[in-house]
Design a protein that fits this description.
Blueprint: H1 33-43, H2 48-57, H3 62-75, H4 80-91, H5 97-106, H6 111-119, H7 123-140, H8 146-159, H9 164-183
Length: 184
């Protein structure tokens, strides 16, 4: 136990900013919605809907937002189809096509663009991703048989958006490999 010192503490001075007081900011932070949008796009890709929503939340007026979206689209900085393809490529290792389509819809990507991006996620890639996930889940607690594997691992794969055919194939593959390793 520490004993308190009877000495007085040095006075704490309020923090003084160098350069004087900060100038007042507009409600949007930036005067130019294009500058704000480019800053957002510099951090990560956005769909048109996401960018529109973020600019609206920053207090920009609808005509300025629409002009900014049009300009960025024309310049090629904002492309929902490319955004959707990138999201499917990045998250395809952890999610199935149904979950990816739902995520794209939540981000405001138009259905034709989302369907085109998810269509690029071919069944072989889906099976490979589902099998890798099934292997990780199987390694945590190996089930006794195929039915238990489907109940435990298969349910988790279904929740991640993989089809039941892909889930069954991935579970069979992992279980067959596990049996082969025990026989060796």
């Amino acid at each position: 136990m520490q004993r308190r010192s009877s000495r007085s503490r040095p006075e704490q001075r309020p923090a003084v900013r160098e350069g004087g007081p900060r100038p007042p900011r507009s409600s949007s932070g930036d005067a130019d919605p294009l500058a704000r949008a480019i800053g957002l796009l510099a951090r990560r890709a956005h769909s048109q809907s996401e960018l529109r929503r973020k600019l609206r939340l920053k207090g920009y007026e609808a005509p300025a937002i629409e002009a900014t979206i049009a300009q960025l689209t024309e310049l090629g900085y904002l492309d929902d189809r490319a955004f959707a393809s990138g999201l499917v490529r990045r998250r395809g290792a952890l999610r199935g096509p149904m979950a990816l389509a739902a995520e794209l819809a939540a981000k405001g990507v138009a259905r034709p663009d989302a369907e085109a991006a998810v269509a690029e996620f071919d069944p072989e890639a889906q099976l490979a991703a589902a099998t890798r996930l099934a292997e990780r889940l199987y390694a945590r607690k190996p089930p006794a048989g195929y039915r238990e594997m489907l109940d435990g691992v298969g349910t988790k794969l279904l929740r991640r958006g993989f089809s039941s055919a892909i889930v069954r194939a991935a579970c069979r593959s992992v279980l067959a490999e596990a049996v082969q390793h025990t026989e060796d």
